[in-house]
UniProtKB/TrEMBL annotation:
One Pfam family in the UniProt entry: Exportin-5
InterPro entries: ARM-like, ARM-type_fold, Exportin-1/Importin-b-like, Exportin-5_C, XPO1/5
Exportin-1/Importin-beta-like domain ranges (all copies): 106-264
Protein name (Swiss-Prot/TrEMBL): Protein HASTY 1
Domain of life: Eukaryota
Higher taxonomy: Eukaryota, Viridiplantae, Streptophyta, Embryophyta, Tracheophyta
Amino acid sequence: MEEGLIASNVAQAIVTALDWTSSPDARAAAHSFLETIKTGDARVLANTSFLLVKRDWSSEIRLQAFKMLQHLVRLRWDQLNPEERRKFANVAADLMSDIANPCEEWALKSQAAALVAEIVRREGPSLWQELLPSIITLSSAGPIQAELVSMMLRWLPEDVTVHNEDLEGDRRRLLLRGLTQSLPEILPLLYTLLERHYGAAVMEAGRQQMDIAKQHAGTVTAAVHAINAYAEWAPLPDLAKYGIIHGCGFLLTSPDFRLLACEFFKLVSPRKRPVDASSDFESAMRNVLEIIMNVADGFLQKTSYSSSSDESELEFAEYICESLVSVGSTNLQCIVADNTVLSFYLQQMLGFFQHSKLALHHQSLLFWLALMRDLVLKSKIAGIRDISADDLNLGTGQVDNEKRKILSLVNDDICSYILDTSFQRMLKKEKVHPEMKPTTMELWSDDFDSKIGFSQYRSRLLELIRFIATHKPLVAASKVSETITEIIKSVSLELVPTKDLAKIESMHLALENVVSTIFDGSNEYCKYSTEVQLSLHRMFEGLLQQLISLKWTEPILVEVLGHYLDALGPFLRYYPDAVGSVINKLFELLGALPFMVKDPSTSTARRARLQICTSFIRIAKAASESLLPHMKGIASTMTYLQQKGVLMRAEQNILGEAVLVMASSAGVQEQQEVFHWLLEPLRKQWIQPEWQETYLSDPTGLVRLCSETQFMWSIFHTVTFFEKALKRSGLGKGRSLENYSKTSSDVAHPMVSHLTWMLPPLLKLLRAIHSLWSPSVTQALPGEVKAAMIMSDVERTSLLGERNQKSHKGALTFTDGSQFDISKETSEPIETDIRNWMRGIRDSGYSILGLSATLGDSFFRCIDPHSFIIALIENIQHMEFRHIKQLVHSVLVPLVKFCPSDLWVTWLERLLHPLLHHVCQALSFSWSSLLREGITKVPDLHGILAGSDLKVEVMEEKLLRDLTREICSFLLVFAAPDLNPALPSLEQAAQISHMDDSSMRDLNMFACNSMVGFVLNNKSLAVPVLKICVDAFGWTDSDSMGKVTSFCGLVILVAVSTNNVELREFVCRDLFSAVIQGLTLESNAIISADLVNVCREIFVYLSNRDPSPRQILLSLPSITLHDLLAFEEALLKTGSPKEQKQHMRSLLIMATGNKLKALAAQKSVNGITNFTMRPRNLGTVPESSSLDEGDAIGLAAII
């Protein structure tokens, strides 16, 4: 009677909790009552739940009762004694038998099966063996009973296939062992159910008994899903032995079940061969492959490259192709011994690669890419150059026979077909002229459902082309030359030649990759036989002569022709005789294009001219020394064109950069002469005091400069060329003067003599630009200049991450990654023009200063630090966050890295103090505002009328995090080993820490040979730096936190190594407390181990010299003095940092009452998804509620 009353009360509580029309108080009371039942007596919970799963109650109540039973089994099973558990199991098994009724809802059947499976997993193999006879008997009772048994068998291995932190170690191994031992009973049972009910479903459907046929079909579906639960881990020979592979292979012929069967093959095909596997594994995998190949052959013969298949057929083919790719990627060795099967398999993969449907082609592309990457790279390492199949038999002992055999089957024909298809598919549907689109082939389009974009897809195609060119250079050279020749002929016959523009443009990428692979500069080309070299020479020389003979004048075509010519640059390295004709052709193309400045109709010509100039750079880099004999001739032609006035400044810059690249291959003397020739004309204009006084003496002068467009852009091009000269002088990749001196003995760096005249006007220009953000100046500025200072739409979109930013349609990307925007000198709104100019000056100016700093002494001892610091720091308090980030990254980082230590006070102290002081205050204010008010206050978005407050908040937070990370990275630069050679190791510091303060070194002894020591010894720097460190532990940005933690490690090291009481007190009190506070933030979970280690280092090495760490720990809410003493005793017993860190972690968790979110155990919630492909009726259970935990069904639905 009492149990019935409790059951009624629980039922009423469930109804109330699920009824959204109930009052909040009523629902809260219902939840509280249910929680009391769940956490109360386990026997009451069991009896009540078993009463509520009976048919007397509604579906909603029964469903929740099943979940309560599962909750008991998973979390409270040990509270029942063995007899009670056995009785519970028998009742659950009987319940599964009782619920096998056509009238029962599928969700309830699923819960009943899941409950029995959960009990078996908890009790282990003994219970399974006891239940097995009744399970087999139940499966024979009818299709509904068989479906329930299949469901239960599907749930059994759930904890093997899905990670569950509640089931680790011995229990998991015991479950896996028990299931493996039971496979001889489980797999035959599943095969029997599959065979029996598939046949019954077909027979009943033939009799038009559709209701009964659906029941049998449901059993087949459940059986296949159960099989798939074992396919991931059960030994492959067992799956073959008990007929599972055969049965699922048969289902591939059934339109109703073939997609389900595909899932099985998708799971087994990538199974890797165990180390101790017998030949049975290879036999089973070969069986898998043969089944899939037979199905694939039927599809390929039926479609034969057409697109006439229906959608269901294509979906099926995608699954089959995916399985073929998996087998080929992991188990190709299983068929390598059979030449016929292996050849047939490669032909099938080629058929999918050539298929008109993009999805099938894309699947096959992944196979060919993986195969060729593996084969070609390994053959190169082993020294094989596979020019023909016969070559494979010569001197290939280092490569195993399997690889050589596969490589020999990738013959000329296969490579030729792959190249043909790859060339055709490098086109994007949206770019192709409607009249030129292929009739059958499905090209890549924006609508294609893929995890990658077109650029990544095309990159994969180009990578495959490179592998083919490595494997079969003659085939690749011949095919790319023939294809380009055909395109050239078709263009000459077209009335509108630009119709085929997409194909013309795409083929230059293919040519570039083939040529760069064959003539890759690593002496691979020299390993070819003389006959092969002559053949390659003839083919590319013939193609080059065709390109040179073209008389294209259309700017778009001229631009493409420039691409083709520079793609042949690596070829010119080995055949320099052709260099002269290429150079002449480029200058001819440049002269044939119209020279106009502001006419918008000539924008394509303008772009083409820039592209032709850029081709000189690309050829100079690729052909290397081959261009040296022509360098003077190129310089003379440049001078001639300048004198005629038909060479724009941007074009002069690019051609000048090309000459710099050529000079880098010459001697030091020649390089210095080239620098002088290029920079001397600029020097004469740049050092003139008139323009500096007119435009840079005050902000109004800079405003006047912005209104004089031609002179404004002339300054821009001068500054950008200075940057290019510095990069091309050998400083672009971090080379310092010391690196340069190693190769040039006593000869000075070619740019050293130019810094003294180059930098002073540049600093004035940057100072003038910085001053515009000063409030007193900004108020007086004209509207167009104010508008130019506001962030552009492109920058805001980039901050929002709404789409990947592409280069402006008028932007040329050079080989070094830089861009030149041709729109900067065309008709643009004046504020856009000014914004682009200021951004360009800032970008290049900062880059010049940073590159100059890498020259070390030559820079720091010849430049006036006062003017340098004033230019950068004078208006630092008015700078926007994005500009400070750029300044730190581009200028201050190299300054700190390369500044001589004897100049740290002169340069760094005066430079860093105002910066760090301002940044410390700005970050503290913005983060405080964000964390307390949810509003990030940054200066960058002032003046922007955003359409969405949410977007503004996102942008502001992104700007704040970007600057925070940059500043924290800057602190990490201070801690670089190269800048701190005087600091001892932590082991040495540990020995020092036991001495008296009088025995240790003073902090100022580290200030001259340790950057961290210098910063900490200087209070004007130490105060803001240490405040940033302490504050950062409260900021929710784990990326920044990781950098700060590394810097703090050196701060601790200095505190341990010196006798500075003030620093030691800061570390022991402020830093120790801040780190513990940082562990309360869940965002710091990823670096929690580092934070715990900081606490360990402070306590282990400093607690004997300062009481603060002990006092702070004792102030935590859940610790006693006894706990602390036990912790200290544990530390004394071990010298292992790893063990000490574990002790510290345990202490912190205990002392805070497990309130440190960064250390809290993060348990994953594992849901079991409904595996059926048929829609199921879940009754009237709401879609979500706190009671049913997201409406999960199965073992993971724990309430």
